[in-house]
Write a structure and sequence with these properties.
This protein has 19 helices and 19 strands. The chain has about 600 residues and is α+β, with helices and mostly antiparallel strands. It is elongated. The two termini are about 55 Å apart. It binds serine.
Length: about 600
């Protein structure tokens, strides 16, 4: 059965039970500020679960696009995905357990014709917050599910929500289908229900979890159900994995075509999953960046690139996603027209992000590069001589420094190590986590508004002004001769401020000349890149800047930014990739800042 057919059967069935079919909402939750993404069909419906009147009435059904990042480490197994679709039906204070369970059963056994012998269900066992759910189990028994296929588990298995800290939640009853070999085995608690695939979840939302952790009764008793579209297709088509369905095969084939060295099917699945999720995120306006929500597409793109490069294609190719993206759009173009409408946007955002990250990837091409970097970080032991076989024992603190300076995550470093057949020791991982925790505490206590390395933020405007500051610094050196002693810099999205030692006011000619040189360099479309150099190497290359700059330090190396051949400056970044991105440069003011120090204020247009 195809995805379109399953959706149609579901909608027809619930229409016949008095439901209004509603469209999928955005992946950015508009009605639920407790979550970063829409992780289930219920998020867009929170106000109605809390008692608002829904325009579609008390019964609605939908197929909702969802993103779940909590399962990211499981992605690539048979059932976990970052992006997936969820079929669901809801009752806002209308029908309750009996109808919900009877309709789920009818749909599964009569419409989809799944044999009830292969079904098992679980119900909530009860605790101090809510009683044992005998009501649900009685309905299942009446429908002919034998007692030994009705399981009772605790909150971990049979309680849904809230997805954030507060919100609607309640006990649930879950439906599983046996896809294992031979006779169905007993259902076990926990995530790994070997041989059983969870296909549907009926949640009985009668509680609201409060900020102080209490479960208070909601005004109305609601039903919230969720059926995983991809998982159900697996079951209906006798497949083993969601990656074998029509919603993945073309994407995976496109990736396999590029494979020169892949050895692990699961790695291809991970890349396919991530590319698909990123397409949907960008189409809904989530652009890669540093902030919480925007960090997710960045992380997905970087992980996909790392896996693809290390385990599939074997070389860095910033266009590797082109064909897979086309396949994603082909698969979903009818159901989610936003993908086709935003195609150019998706491709250009992906390309820019991939180009940026490829600079970093080049530094860590394989384990020997990693070792080189590690050695620069003064590993506790010389690698790998003192280690147990197959174990890299290096300073977790140093690995954290790589993360901070280059933005290479733990997962990515682990992949590079894995490619070389190595693992990090537990001690290293603990040390890394410790550094991470310390950093988070420090950031929390750092006073708001303090600019890191003179930068207010990493917005596009700030990054452009940052690069133009380097050009200005070099242009001043050209005009004034010798070295220009920088005394400070401060950049906001609106303007740059540059202080330098100079005993006199600049003339109008000098100012005009500065503007001319900087604009000329912008027009020359000079590429920008950085290199990691020792202090001696940086000096030999004539880099200027502060040699003790702590933002530019990476172990015992310095990050030096090059703008074409024109400027070489020690700096932590970030910068534009090419001066053509900058626009035109204008000096607004030249004034005294303090004795012997002049200040230039400038903008870009
Ligand atoms: N909210 C529940 C789930 O995600 C049912 O839709 O499983």
């Amino acid at each position: 059965m195809k995805s379109g057919e399953l959706k149609k059967l579901f909608f027809d069935f619930f229409k016949s039970k008095g439901h209004t079919i509603i469209p999928s909402a955005s992946l950015i939750p508009e009605n639920d500020s407790t979550v970063l993404f829409t992780t289930a069909g219920m998020h867009p419906l929170v106000p109605y679960l809390l008692g608002e009147v829904h325009p579609g009435g008390k019964r609605v059904a939908s197929v909702q696009k969802c993103i779940r990042t909590g399962d990211i480490d499981e992605v690539g197994d048979d059932v976990h995905l970052t992006f997936f679709e969820m079929l669901g039906n809801w009752s806002f204070g209308d029908y309750w357990k009996k109808e919900a369970i009877e309709w789920s059963f009818e749909f599964l056994t009569k419409v989809l014709k799944l044999p009830k012998e292969k079904l098992a269900v679980s119900c909530f066992v009860g605790d101090s917050d809510a009683p044992r759910d005998e009501e649900s189990s009685k309905v299942w028994e009446a429908l002919g599910i034998p007692k030994n296929r009705i399981y009772f588990f605790g909150k971990k298995d049979n309680w849904w929500g809230p997805a954030g800290i507060t919100g609607p939640c309640g006990p649930d009853t879950e439906m599983f289908y046996w896809t294992g070999e031979g006779e169905p085995e007993p259902l076990t608690t926990g995530d790994n229900k070997s041989g059983w695939v969870e296909i549907w979840n009926d949640v009985f939302m009668q509680y609201n979890k409060t900020a102080d952790g209490r479960f208070e009764q909601l005004k109305q008793k609601n039903v919230d159900t969720g059926m995983g579209l991809e998982r159900t297709l697996v079951v209906l088509n006798g497949k083993q994995s969601v990656y074998e369905t029509e919603l993945f095969v073309p994407i995976i084939d496109a990736l396999k075509k590029r494979a020169t060295s892949y050895y692990d099917e699961r790695k291809v699945y991970i890349v396919a999953d991530h590319i698909k999720a990123v397409c949907f995120l960008i189409a809904d306006g989530v652009i890669p960046g540093k902030e919480e929500r925007n960090y997710i597409p960045r992380r997905l793109i970087r992980d996909a690139m790392t896996v693809h490069y290390l385990f599939i294609e074997g070389s860095i190719n910033v266009n590797f996603f082109l064909e897979p993206v086309n396949k994603v759009i082909e698969i979903y173009r009818n159901d989610y027209p936003e993908l086709l409408n935003k195609k150019n946007n998706i491709l250009s955002v992906l390309l820019k992000e991939a180009e940026d990250y490829s600079e970093i990837l080049k530094l860590i091409r394989d384990v020997s590069d990693l070792r080189k970097l590690y050695n620069d970080f003064k590993p506790k032991k010389v690698w790998p001589t003192n280690n147990k076989p197959g174990e890299i024992d290096l300073s977790g603190k140093s690995l954290f420094d790589i993360r901070q300076s280059l933005g290479v995550s733990w997962a990515q470093m682990k992949m590079v190590a894995e490619k070389g057949g190595y693992i990090f020791s537990l001690e290293t991982e603990e040390e890394y986590n410790e550094s991470y925790k310390k950093h988070q505490e420090l950031s929390r206590t750092a006073s708001a508004g303090k600019f890191k390395g003179g930068l207010a933020d990493n917005s596009e405007e700030v990054v452009k002004l940052h690069t133009v500051t380097h050009l200005l610094h070099q242009a001043l050196t050209d005009i004034l001769g010798g070295t220009v002693d920088q005394k400070g810099a401060n950049i906001t999205p609106e303007r740059l401020r540059f202080d330098f030692a100079c005993p006199r006011k600049l003339t109008d000619d000098e100012i005009a000349n500065l503007e001319k040189i900087v604009n000329q360099k912008i027009k020359e479309e000079l590429p920008v890149h950085f290199e990691l150099l020792t202090v001696e190497e940086a000096k030999a290359k004539g880099a200027h800047g502060i040699f003790e700059d702590k933002y530019a330090q990476l172990g015992n190396k310095l990050k030096v930014y090059f703008i074409g051949d024109y400027s070489k400056e020690i700096c932590g970044g970030p910068h534009v990739k090419n001066t053509r991105e900058i626009g035109s440069f204008k000096i607004i003011k030249e004034e005294a800042s303090s004795a012997g120090v002049r200040r230039i204020r400038a903008v870009i247009k």
